[in-house]
Amino acid sequence: MIIKKILISLVVFTSLSLFFFITDYREKINNAEITRQQLSILEILDLFINTDERLAQLLAKGNNKAWLHLAKLHGDYNANTAYQLAEYFRREKQITSAELWYRVAIRQQHVVSRIALANIYFNQQQYADIKPLLLPIVDNDNALAMLYKVALYQGELAFIAKHKNRLAQGGNMGLYNELEQFSVFNESEKQTKSEEKFEYTIEHNIEHNIKKNIKKNSACSVDVQLFATSLKGLRHGQQLMSAFEHHKLAKYICLRIPKYISAEAINCLHGVSENISCNTSVWITRNDINTRYLGVIVEQGGANVDHGIMYIDQDDNLDVLIHELSHFIGFVDEYPLPKQHQKCQQVQQSPFAHNLVVLPDFYQGEREKLRASILSQVPWRNLIKHSTPILSKYKQGWTLATPVTYQKEIGLFTTASCNKQRKTQAFKPLASRTKLEYFELYFPEIYLNIIELAPTIFLMPNYHFNLKRDLAH
Known about the structure:
- By secondary structure, this protein is of the alpha/beta class.
- The chain has helices spanning 2-30, 36-45, 51-61, 64-75, 79-91, 95-107, 111-123, 130-134, 141-154, 157-162, 164-167, 173-181, 195-216, 231-244, 263-266, 318-328, 367-375, 445-453, 464-472; strands spanning 222-228, 253-260, 293-298, 304-306, 309-313, 357-359, 362-363, 391-394, 397-400, 413-415, 425-428.
- It contains 19 helices and eleven strands.
């Protein structure tokens, strides 16, 4: 009987001691004071709640400090907790800490952490670090999709071809269809021609090709085949296409579904803040182009049009696209052009653009005869009212420009286009600023009316011009 009482007393004492011990350690957890050794002991002794449940309770209570402290202890040997820590630091934009905990989870065979870390590397353009992470789990749909994004950036056509059938299965059918629509799998991209054969084709078939293209796509004055160097660029190009369809310039310009071209193939040499400038010889190898112009969407750089090729970056919006496309059909920038720009070197001998003329700003002679002579050089002369003056009395002659009192009319208004070249002055139809000066402004209805007067008279040279010029160099 005595022994039984002793045993009961021992059990009660031990239970109370264990209760106070566990309560004390739980308090340490809540205060973010528990050590790694104490946590190990608690996990052995506390049979009613595990560390995962404690972490969930801390989050539910909003005790982030305690959760973070406990998670760091637990994450060293628990992959899910390590992943949750990495996600926490990612949301807090503490990327270095996030990467560290993703790697801790990966060492514990956590597949999702591989993909999450690969996403960080992708955003940081650390493409070389992604393949070692994801190739071991290439059968994972998300991993395969990321590897395809990297392959597109790096021009790895062998990988793209090798895993094509795998991509078409499972959860990546949508991506597969996208890439097929963008001609990523098109074998014709790999076909090449010699430069000699190409030059012969250009010299003998250039006019035939232009006429064929315009006839084939007769709904528009010009066609533009878009290309992009990444999946983001391809998708962006398609979005721009859809948005552009609702713009009034779409009556004259048709955009074609973007096709893939690798960044390595076009070998762009510009800096981030410089105008985009890329190698044109790559277009020799393409036999899938039947448009007059090309539009190339690259990762970064300044938008511009170089004769038959338009360059924009994958973050440029519709305003930028419209501005650049307008150059193809004969509109010139209304902001200061480079000092060496060809059109600002001397007074024009004949009209060269829908919206710009470069003419002397001082004349002598009979006003009406001068007016008739000047307007013969102005493409929008038929839209200028006879009552709208273009000449004003100045000393012993006349100065060219419509007076500011007629600023709501169509006339000849000075523009900044040739301001860097003091010996010439440029004039435009409207006094107001337009999209040709600032991307964000409107494209005037009057400019559309001017196009109607002669839609194809001031077209840029087709992209073959670029090829012949660069081959000559």
